[in-house]
Design goal:
Helix content: 25-40%
Radius of gyration: 35 Å
Mean pLDDT: 94
Oligomer: single chain
Low-confidence stretches: none
Length: 944
């Protein structure tokens, strides 16, 4: 029977659906294993060959674990909200829901062709009201919670309301936006609105004033990773920094738990380090500085309390409220111009850029340790969101302060004995402190750090700050609260209405609040988000339903929130929903969550390290506090797949002609390289007729060939439509089959590494599968498999493979597994092996990689169930033992020939056999050997 991959793959894909092969339910008799891919955003372009890389890698592992007897959950769905569908709607008028469904249908068609073991019965779409019901529910829970620092967990906001009525907020240790103080009497005297404003200071989901990346042309706030070089990634529109009232999530409250959790999960060290740096824990002191000739004072945070005597200037973040308060009339014009320039740069760009800019505010601050008046500057190297948005600058011991001081001619005062700061700052935290205070000035306070080590000086100063009420000792985190509002249409609606300007939650029983229809997908003429176009977007608190806007009376009917949730909202707890996707009473049933617990293997890209992977960990920890999630960490093991880059091809057009010259002849002419569609190139050879048909301007193209062929140039670039190097997996499946595509993507290199797509090697993988098939069927379609017992050589070849592949799969070293398969099949082919005992185990071992052909051959071998339900073979070390050893026979250190001996042969027997061999006589030449050295299982050296 011929290997007809098209028929085989269609047959088994159909049967898998009919027999529900990949549907899974909880089974207490089996150990669970949960495999998850970061679900895709369904773009209009569909999948290219780079997209399935991670899916194939995880699918191999899922199939392998199932063969090991695990109950494997391997779901898939779609991150269906996104700006591209909304932009398309703005351009064409087509509703984003239609675009999204069409794109999902295309993705599903492509995914099905590749033969994944996804349980499609569990499919979720973030734009489905049945799904975002639980996103809205979680948001409401966060709104109705605060974070107790003492208990280190989220608690009901009602606890605060009761405590405030009895004690005020005295002694309260809760995460908050700003430190405030009030008594029980003051709380009880406040209006409902005033109480709500105070509670907003503590809520985990809260409305707050925050700096955002605002894109006027798109009419929305953008995340940092959606902004490149001051413009929007999509559309290239200008982006500025702007302060807006936004919904935020108090992620910062969970900073320490996010750090601690990294020690309990199996992620790469580099990714853990990225998160640690992003969370940015630092221990230090907050110190109060008074403004000269003013009642104003402000707080700075420093990790280097030992450097207080070296402060020679202060710096404010451009966004700081202090800028307006401290800027003098003489400096206002210069400061305003500077602020206007910095609005166009995101925080990420400011962190990366080391250039020096700044402006003097005109004010001075008094150093509480020296009494000196130091100038207050404004510069964008200080960020408003970290610490207090104001720093004390010690240029002798901080590189950025040093560069600033050098640029603006400010004093640099060294504080460590023997340090040289003539060319650069001395940043090391080692040495003996000096100039603290300086010997030539009258001490301003009774603290001296001179003669102490830096470590001793830090602790001494922190104690002094605390004892003398100059500030407080504090742990700070770089991690910011997440901005949770977007001024877009295509996103989850907030389940929020406004009464007297304050937000209230709609009833939980009324969820989901569904996205309304709008006439336009653009912001309104008055600058409101697109939901401002909705005519039926008001909440009737009596009838608990959405009603027409004209019924708003601010008594029982109130306006609904016009913003929508951001992209990460729907992806933050989706792993829990996959466990129980059809439950309309809860996010997940507690018993089901107790069974699946969390994700055992999560596969996705490193680009999500400081976005999704932070937000989803925070979200899950909150749900853990709510007793919804049984595990505090959502993703136990994480594997980051690399990127498949494009391998572009070029043709070379002779200048001012329509003639194209082949690669190795191009240097003889003046040519222009032009990208050509890689799908009309095979092994770098151009299909001339396809090229002529590709574009009208090439219809009359002429060619200068080499050896009758046109050879294209090539380069590794990002896979993109503009470079014509996008390879559609459908074309590979049609030409070679899904099993070839799956194996070839894994064969390209280690899963974690980025590598170029190169079809030049795909024929080899396809030939391998055909050779594997030929172990079962002859060229004349004769069925070859017999029940004869296997030979030692055949068993050795098989068990060597099983051992190798078992180890490789655990390490995700799939490329070396495929090499091992090729070696084994070659060995069995040369041994003319057709033994069922061998081939049955070989089929099972290959099944995770090439499931279609293995299902077919498993069926041919007489099995009535899927190969997925077979048992993963165990290798037997006995078969791997070497019975004989090949020795290299050397004379005076030079290898001359080889001899076979039993693996346990005695040394004296080996020596005698070597000397007796007639080939030895030629090299001994009648002489008596001085000695014979036998290196066990390797070499025999005869010294003459």
């Amino acid at each position: 029977m011929e290997y007809n991959f098209r028929e085989i793959e269609k047959k088994w894909q159909k049967r898998w659906v009919e027999e529900k092969t990949y549907q899974v339910t909880e089974d207490d008799s089996k150990q669970k294993f949960y495999v998850l891919n970061m679900f895709p955003y369904p773009s209009g372009a569909g999948l290219h060959v780079g997209h399935p890389l991670g899916y194939i890698a995880s699918d191999i592992y899922a199939r392998y674990k199932r063969l090991q007897g695990f109950n494997v959950l391997n779901p898939m769905g779609y991150d269906a909200y996104g700006l591209p569908a909304e932009q398309y709607a703005i351009q064409t008028g087509q509703h984003p829901a239609i675009t999204t469904v069409n794109n999902i249908d295309r993705y599903r068609e492509q995914l099905d062709k590749i033969g994944f073991s996804f349980d499609w019965n569990r499919e979720i779409r973030t734009c489905d009201p049945e799904y975002y019901h639980w996103t809205q529910w979680a948001f409401q829970k966060m709104f109705n919670s605060y974070y107790c620092n003492d208990e280190q967990q989220a608690r009901p906001i009602e606890e605060l309301e009761k405590a405030f009525a009895i004690y005020g907020n005295k002694g309260l240790n809760a995460a908050c936006s700003e430190e405030i103080s009030f008594t029980a009497e003051e709380w009880n005297a406040k209006s409902e609105k005033e109480k709500q404003e105070i509670l907003m200071n503590y809520r985990i989901a809260y409305l707050g004033e925050t700096m955002v990346n605002w894109c006027a042309e798109l009419g929305t706030v953008l995340a940092n990773d959606e902004v490149v070089d001051g413009v929007s990634e999509r559309g290239g529109f200008p982006v500025i920094q702007k302060k807006m009232r936004q919904w935020c999530l108090r992620v910062s409250a969970y900073a320490q738990r996010l750090l601690d959790g990294l020690d309990t999960i199996e992620w790469t060290d580099s990714l853990k380090e990225t998160q640690r740096n992003w969370i940015g824990r630092s221990e230090g002191a907050e110190v109060q500085f008074k403004v000269k000739d003013s009642d104003l004072e402000f707080t700075i945070f420093t990790t280097r309390a030992d450097t207080m005597f070296g402060v020679t200037f202060m710096v404010l973040a451009p966004e700081s409220e202090l800028v307006a308060q401290l800027t003098t009339p003489e400096q206002k014009a210069e400061v305003d111009a500077y602020l206007d320039r910095t609005k166009k740069r995101t925080e990420r760009e400011r962190i990366a850029d080391r250039s020096v800019t700044g402006v003097f505010s005109g004010s001075y601050a008094i150093n509480p340790f020296t009494g000196e008046a130091v100038p207050v500057w404004i510069s964008d190297y200080v960020l408003a969101g970290y610490g207090t948005g104001a720093i004390m600058a010690v240029p002798a011991h901080d590189s950025r302060d040093y560069a600033f001081a050098k640029h603006f001619g400010l004093e640099i005062r060294p504080l460590v004995e023997g340090c040289d700061v003539s060319e650069e700052s001395f940043d090391a935290k080692e040495g003996i402190v000096c100039n603290s205070p300086r010997p030539d000035v009258t001490p301003y306070c009774d603290l001296s750090l001179n003669g102490l080590t830096i470590k001793e000086a830090i602790e001494t100063t922190k104690k002094y700050v605390k004892d003398h009420n100059l500030g407080r000792v504090k742990v700070n985190y770089r991690l910011r609260d997440a901005i949770f509002s977007r001024q877009r249409y295509w996103g989850e609606p907030f389940p929020v209405y406004y009464k007297d300007g304050m937000p209230y939650m709609i009833d939980e029983a009324s969820l989901p609040l569904e996205l309304p229809e709008v006439a336009k997908f653009l912001p309104t003429e008055t600058g409101e988000p697109p939901l401002g176009h909705a005519t039926k977007w008001a909440w009737d608190t009596v009838n608990k339903c959405v009603v027409e806007n004209e019924k708003i009376d601010h008594v029982t009917v109130f306006p609904l929130e016009l913003n929508t949730m951001p992209g990460f909202a729907g992806s933050s707890a989706y792993y829990l929903r996959y466990m129980d996707p059809h439950n309309n009473k809860a996010l997940v049933d507690p018993k089901i969550d107790q069974y699946w617990k969390n994700v055992d293997l999560y596969v996705g890209g490193t680009e999500h390290a400081t976005g999704h992977l932070i937000y989803s960990r925070f979200w899950n920890k909150f749900l853990y506090d709510m007793d919804v999630s049984v595990m505090e960490e959502p993703f136990q093991k994480l594997v980051n797949q690399g990127m498949i880059q494009g391998r572009s091809n070029f043709v070379y057009r002779i200048k001012d002609t329509n003639t194209f010259v082949s690669l190795n002849l191009k240097d003889q002419y003046e040519v222009t390289p032009i990208h050509v569609d890689v799908n009309i190139v095979s092994n770098d050879i151009l299909d001339l007729e396809a090229f002529k048909a590709w574009r009208p301007e090439y219809k009359t193209a002429e060619f200068i060939l080499e050896d009758g062929k046109y050879v294209c140039g090539w380069a590794v670039e990002k896979m993109s439509k503009s470079m014509f190097n996008v390879v559609n997996p459908d074309m590979i499946v049609e030409k070679y089959g899904a099993d070839t595509l799956r194996m070839y993507e894994m064969f390209l290199g280690p899963v974690e590494q980025s590598k170029p797509w190169d079809t030049n090697g795909i024929d080899g993988v396809h030939r391998f599968i055909r050779k594997f098939w030929s172990l079962f069927y002859s060229r004349t379609d004769e069925y070859l498999v017999t029940d004869e017992p296997a030979t030692k050589e055949e068993l050795k070849s098989l068990h060597k493979l099983i051992k190798k592949v078992t180890g490789d799969i655990e390490q995700f070293s799939y490329n070396t597994s495929i090499s091992a398969f090729m070696i084994c099949v070659n060995e069995l082919f040369n041994l003319k092996c057709s033994k069922k005992e061998i081939l049955e185990q070989l089929v099972i071992t290959l099944a995770p990689f090439a499931p279609h052909v293995c299902e077919e051959l498993w069926d041919v071998l007489g099995h009535e169930t899927s190969v997925c339900d077979a048992q993963w073979p165990a290798y037997n070390e006995e078969y791997l033992k070497e019975n004989t050893v090949n020795y290299t026979i050397s004379f005076n250190g030079k290898a001359r020939f080889n001899m076979e001996f039993a693996a346990d042969e005695a040394s004296d027997v080996i020596q005698a056999a070597v000397l007796a061999d007639e080939r030895s006589q030629k090299w001994i030449d009648g002489k008596t050997p001085k000695k014979i050295i036998v290196v066990p299982k390797k070499i025999v050296n005869v010294v003459i």
